[in-house]
Amino acid sequence: MSNNRIGVLVMSYGTPESMEGIEAYYTHIRRGHAPTAEQLAELTARYEAVVGGVFPLRENTNRQVSGLQAALDALAPGRYACYQGLKHASPYIEDGVAKMAEDGIKRAVTIVLAPHYSTMSVGGYNKRAKDKADEVGIEMVSVESYHLHPKLIEALVDRVVSALAKFDRKQPIKALFSAHSLPVRIRESNDPYEKQLLETSSAIAQRAGVTDWEFTWQSAGRTREPWLGPDILETLQETADKEYKQVLSVPIGFVSDHLEVLYDLDIEAKTAAGGLGMKFERIEMLNTDPFYMQTLAESVEAKDPWR
What we know:
- The chain is of the alpha/beta class.
- The chain contains eleven helices and eight strands.
- It folds into two domains: 6-146 and 289-303, Rossmann fold (3-Layer(aba) Sandwich), CATH 3.40.50; 150-282, Rossmann fold.
- β3, α5 and β4 (139-142) form a beta-alpha-beta unit.
- α3 (57-75) packs across α11 (290-303), α6 (150-164) crosses α7 (193-208) and α8 (232-241) packs parallel to α10 (264-275).
- The longest helix is centred in the first third of the chain and has 19 residues, at 57-75.
- It is globular, with a radius of gyration of 20 Å.
């Protein structure tokens, strides 16, 4: 049975569905190697600290997929059908493509819930999707990035301006833009990830009237190879050394509330800042912000070659 609708595969990193699923999830991230008892205990403790045994994190992605479907329906009624594919949890990327094929979809656009392109992140998602699409006979194109989409920038500027209202504006405020670190070797191939992150940061800072800012990294993996730095914890120390008392965290590399934001920033970085005598606030995440949903929808439509 053929289906004339264009499939839209919405991809993200994935998170376990429950506390019981953490070990399987961690094993998948480690390419089939089970974590040590110590590693598992540490990751479980992080999830406990964030969700307290209840697991709402998965719902963020589900709501974003539903929100994108609604935005696409408003833009082009009846043309697009959204499917979900996760990198490290079910439904996996390949599952999403297989479901499209099962539904008779013949053409599809992929988009990742991450605005910035890297061969190691978005590129990897798109390759997995394309490999499966080739296997099941779906013609597929991919959105690579949308890091300067005007509505994305506007949504982030709104959040920066709102968060700044929580500070004493008479005193200096250091804004720290951040994103997930990647291995340093991405620089060897002129990967656009760093350049795009700085472009987004500059655009937001300029529009929000923020002149005192810098870019830093967070959430580096624990592998033997070097990762991009400095880490936000080091940057916080440097900021305190310069006698700042106020820090605004602007994690532009992330679009929803999940572990890298709720633990790495809200608990770990905030605790570190407090220990250094600094007030630490973070912008709200995009989640299902209407402007973000429109950013995604417009990016999908712009990539659609069958219009």
